[in-house]
Amino acid sequence: MAMATKLTARRSRKTSPTSETPLVQGLLIALSLLFMGVILLLPLYAVFHEALIKGPGAYFAALLEPDAQSAIRLTLLVAAIAVPLNLVFGVAASWAIAKFEFKGKAFLITLIDLPFSVSPVISGLVYVLLFGAGSVLGPVLKSYGIEVLFALPGIVLATIFVTFPFVARELIPLMQDQGTGDEEAALSLGANGWQTFFLVTLPNIKWGLLYGVLLCNARAMGEFGAVAVVSGKIRGQTTTIPLQVEMLYNEYNATAAFALASLLALLALVTLVLKSALEWRFSAEIAAGNH
């Protein structure tokens, strides 16, 4: 008995593969903080410093300028259209992939991941080929008074393309991990399909869904490449915040450019805070369920 106790104590004192000396731990932490400071915090400081370098008056004047207001309104409008559509698609695709077996399932997952591997500029060029003056669809739609390129529809389509994986990619592994047991129990108790979805499935995925929507919204408001191709960069009409920032910076209007850029930086900070809050809430719910 004493020998077994000694062996157990000796094994507990053995160094595990992930345990390092305090010196190594300190170096790793310092290196991580240095990297984050140079790559993340320093640029963030530079954005707000340049935005406020001429004082709050110049900062708010830049944000209230008509072209800046138009860019802000267009950015919010595009996000308000693209995010709900991606939410519907993400939930439907995740439901199909996680709850059913069908031919082409792996291909559908591959298609969902496509925007992650395709340059946003390329996706914008695809819409130019589909709806441009030399295409088949472009002249037909224009004959009915529908403008796609260099107008709101083209910007929305490009934004949807680059953002549609975010909701689905958050929900698919979550719904696969949950399985179909809860839904089968609800159906066996007499619930119909919609009741099962709203009363069983949706509460189970609510935190993952909110997290996906949050990421989708942040990307929609910050998208540059695809929108730059299809928008035409018409000042005051088809310029979103990222496009307006580029135009102002190229015109050497640094204060106005960084003032608008600070809005996107604030969005990133708010996204980070909400992301952390959602992760904490989700972890707390899982821990409560395990108990």
Structural class: mainly alpha
Largest sheet: none
- Encode the helix/strand succession as letters: HHHHHHHHHHHHHH
What is the number of helical segments per DSSP (H or I, 4+ residues)? 14
Shape: globular
> Helical percent range?
over 70%
Cα-atom radius of gyration: 25 Å
| Strand runs, count | 0
Could you give the distance between the termini? Answer: 34 Å
Into which percentage range does the β-strand content fall?
A: under 5%
Sequence stretches where pLDDT stays below 50 over 5 or more residues: 1-15
Whole-number mean pLDDT: 83
Question: Can you describe this structure?
Answer:
With 291 residues, the protein is mainly alpha-helical. Mean pLDDT is 83; it is low at 1-15. The protein is built from 14 helices and no strands. Helix 8 (152-163) crosses helix 11 and helix 9 packs antiparallel against helix 11 (193-222). It has helices at residues 2-13, 22-52, 56-64, 66-99, 105-117, 120-131, 137-143, 152-163, 165-178, 181-188, 193-222, 225-231, 241-250, 254-290.
What's this, in brief?
This protein has 291 residues and is mostly helical.
